[in-house]
Write a structure and sequence with these properties.
- The structure holds 2 protein chains of 2 kinds.
- By secondary structure, chain A is an alpha/beta fold.
- Chain A contains 7 helices and 7 strands; from the N terminus they run αααααβαββββββα.
- A 7-stranded mixed beta sheet of chain A has the order 6-1-4-3-2-5-7.
- Chain A is extended.
- Chain B has 7 helices and no strands.
- Chain B is globular, with a radius of gyration of 18 Å.
- Chain B folds into 2 domains: 98 residues, Rna Polymerase Sigma Factor, Chain: A, CATH 1.10.1740; 84 residues, Winged helix-like DNA-binding domain superfamily/Winged helix DNA-binding domain (Arc Repressor Mutant, subunit A, Orthogonal Bundle).
- The termini of chain B are far apart.
- By secondary structure, chain B is an all-alpha fold.
- Helices cover 74% and strands 0% of the residues of chain B.
- Classes of the chains: A alpha/beta, B mainly alpha.
- At the A-B interface, helix 1, helix 2, helix 3, helix 4 and helix 7 of A face helix 1, helix 2, helix 3, helix 4 and helix 5 of B.
Chain lengths: 207, 183
């Protein structure tokens, strides 16, 4: 079977050809998007304040970051965090405890394209690790390789499960995780496939 | 004006994104994920490659779509993560039952062969065949390098062609219109 035959065969099996779903109403979608965004921003800003009010001790000064991430949504994401890291560094700097690096995962109401090398290499802390345990909101990584900013053998990542869309990690899974000032932003971790690992090794170690 | 830019973008990408999602998830998830995708596109409107800053012409789908597929892909992955395995199972069940019986007979083997591919290989192959993207555009949509895409695409084509060839060659299988020989 050559490429053209295969292409024809795949095209003829395209599920979109046989769907009975009505076509999307673009005008309504545009209108809904613009309205939802405004409503969501005010709602999540309020949620951010409520979160701060709970006084989650582990999250220190995350109130400000929470507002940024929740209120700012995706566009905020990485850019806001990297551009506005003063709040983090002042109050939430993390120090290795008992040999393990402790990080906090930030949640966000937005979504993101899986980040690539170019995005992740901007983080001052970047490692490839295998998840050894997931207990509640705490994920423990065995570090397979440090690319930047650390030498601990273990990384303990605390996720605030109260924030929706926080990244979830599977036990035994391998990930490449970026962090800044002790925080892992919403779009700063990817599944580490052999290709991505090779790409990162090539970029950082030239092999 | 940002809203006008977004509207221009929407006119170009909504239908292809809708089809992208229809191909990959259950019909009742499509609308939710499409809405999420549009929300992300609106918030990241300044990052959309190929979307001019001015109020002028409609963006070229070839420029903007790969990036937008990447966003839809991320939103779908988030929705799946949120719903866990249950959703993936439902998606499979729906995929196998939603087709009319004659189509299912025609394409059952093909869908089975697609399901047998590694997830990322399958995505690369589908983006090539169904979304009609070139390897460079697939790289943009998936975050892989163009080189990795070419390798995966080649591997996926080979695997699926071998699997279909094998099925076609089975004497007990359906007689196929293509009349491919068993060589």
């Amino acid at each position: 079977m050559n490429d053209d035959e295969l292409l024809d065969r795949l095209k003829s099996a395209d599920p979109a050809l046989t769907t009975q779903a009505p076509p999307p109403d673009i005008d309504r979608l545009v209108e809904d998007t613009l309205n939802t965004d405004t409503a969501l921003q005010s709602a999540t800003t309020a949620a951010g304040i409520a979160t701060a009010g709970w006084g989650r001790r582990r999250l220190f000064g995350l109130a400000a970051a929470g507002l940024l991430v929740l209120g700012g949504g995706v566009a905020g994401g990485i850019m806001a965090n990297s551009g506005n890291g003063n709040g983090h560094s002042a109050s939430a700097k993390t120090a290795p405890t008992a040999g393990a690096l402790r990080l906090t995962a930030e949640g966000g109401s937005g979504k993101c394209v899986p980040p690539g090398l170019d995005t992740l290499r901007k983080y001052p802390t970047l490692f490839e690790g295998t998840v050894t345990s997931v207990k509640g909101s705490t994920t423990t990584f065995r570090v397979d390789q440090w690319f930047k900013g650390g030498d601990a053998e273990t990384v303990v990542l605390t996720s605030d499960t109260g924030i929706p869309e926080t990244l979830s990690y599977a036990e035994g899974g391998r990930y490449i995780v970026g962090a800044k000032d002790g925080f892992v932003p919403p779009c700063a971790a990817i599944d580490a496939t052999p290709e991505t690992i090779a790409e990162f090794h090539q970029a950082f170690f030239g092999k | 004006m940002q809203q006008a830019r977004f509207e221009r973008l929407a006119r170009v990408v909504v239908e292809p994104l809708h089809r992208y999602l229809l191909r990959r998830t259950s019909a009742d998830m499509v609308d939710d994920v499409l809405s999420e995708t549009m929300l992300v596109l609106w918030r990241r409107i300044d990052e959309v490659p190929g979307l001019g800053a001015g109020a002028l012409p409609e963006p070229d789908p070839g420029d903007v779509l790969p990036w937008c597929y990447g966003v839809a892909r991320g939103c779908l992955a988030n929705a799946r993560r949120a719903d866990g395995r249950r959703l993936r199972l439902v998606e499979r069940l729906i995929r196998s039952h939603e087709q009319s019986p004659d189509r299912a007979a025609d394409h059952g083997e093909l869908h089975a062969a697609l399901d047998a591919l590694a997830a990322q290989d399958r995505e690369v192959l589908q983006l090539w065949a169904w979304e009609g993207l070139a390897p460079r555009q697939i790289a943009e949509a998936t975050g892989l390098t163009a080189n990795a895409v070419s390798i995966r695409l080649h591997r996926a084509k080979k695997k699926i062609a071998a699997q279909l060839g094998r099925k076609d060659a089975e004497p007990t299988g359906h007689k196929r219109d293509e009349g491919r020989s068993s060589q």
